[in-house]
Design brief:
Blueprint: H1 5-16, E1 21-25, H2 31-38, E2 44-47, H3 50-59, E3 65-68, H4 77-80, E4 86-90, H5 93-106, E5 110-117, H6 129-141, E6 147-155, H7 162-179, E7 187-193, H8 200-205, E8 210-213, H9 215-218
Parallel strand pairs: 1-2, 1-8, 2-3, 3-4, 4-5, 5-6, 6-7
The structure holds pyridoxal-5'-phosphate.
């Protein structure tokens, strides 16, 4: 399927009501699909795989904001450190330290979101609230000047039960607001990234400020 431009325009209109940012998730899709949305003025694209992101970044316009939304391994940070706009899925202090190290080499501050575990499935990555507090405490003691923590990200359970999904988004929004007060020079909780094709409407109702939508725009993978 080619890019669904009508769907794109409809989603943009829906998101405009609350000023929610759209990250168009282009993983596994061709650069030509990305360009089709780029030509409509879209600039924020999300990718899950480092190699694919690096390849696409090299061939596409340089003013694209590339979001890394997959699980980032510490040994791969160096490949995207020079250009990534926002890393969504950070869930360890070790990874933050590596991002800081690569940022320092480039003298570039790298923006990240902390991934919070809200789903019932064991397999999803992310921090629980205790681990979140540990990371925030660690950063207070050992500031990482080349990392900017801009907010949180979460994924709901893979289920048709939309009430359960809503509860998970609600809990993430509560965690987000509970820890928002802990801002410092390198920590500012401005972005709450939650919601995908199947559940973004609920996510917005529950306080999301950034949605990550793939299949609705680009077709099934
Ligand atoms: C693939 C992916 C998305 C987009 O999923 P769709 O259901 O296609 O909208 C959003 N977030 C993450 C983390 C993803 O891996």
């Amino acid at each position: 399927m080619a890019v669904n431009k009508e769907q794109y325009l409809a989603i943009k209109e829906q998101l405009a009501v609350k000023g929610t940012t759209l990250v168009a998730v282009s993983k596994t899709k061709a650069p030509s699909d990305i360009l089709a949305l780029y030509e409509l003025g879209h600039r924020d694209f999300g990718e899950n795989y480092v190699q694919e992101l690096v390849d696409k970044q090299a061939q596409l316009p340089s003013d694209i904001n590339w979001h890394f939304i997959g699980h980032l391994q510490t040994n791969k940070v160096k490949y995207l450190a020079s250009f990534v706009h926002l890393v969504h899925g950070v869930d360890s202090f070790k990874l933050l330290r590596e991002i800081n190290k690569q940022g320092e080499k480039l003298q570039r501050k790298i923006s990240v979101l902390l991934q919070i575990h809200i789903a019932t499935e064991e397999t999803k990555f992310g921090l629980d609230e205790t681990e979140l507090v540990e990371i925030l405490d660690s950063i207070e003691k050992d500031p990482l000047p080349f990392v900017q923590i801009k907010g949180m990200m979460g994924m709901a359970s893979f289920t048709d039960n939309m009430e359960a999904v809503r509860e998970e988004f609600k809990s993430l929004n509560q965690i987000f607001h509970a820890h928002k007060v802990r801002h410092s020079e390198n920590v500012s909780f401005d972005i709450l990234s939650m919601g995908m094709s199947a559940d973004f409407t609920i996510a917005i109702e529950e306080g999301s400020s950034m949605v990550r939508i793939g299949s609705l725009l680009f077709g099934n993978r």
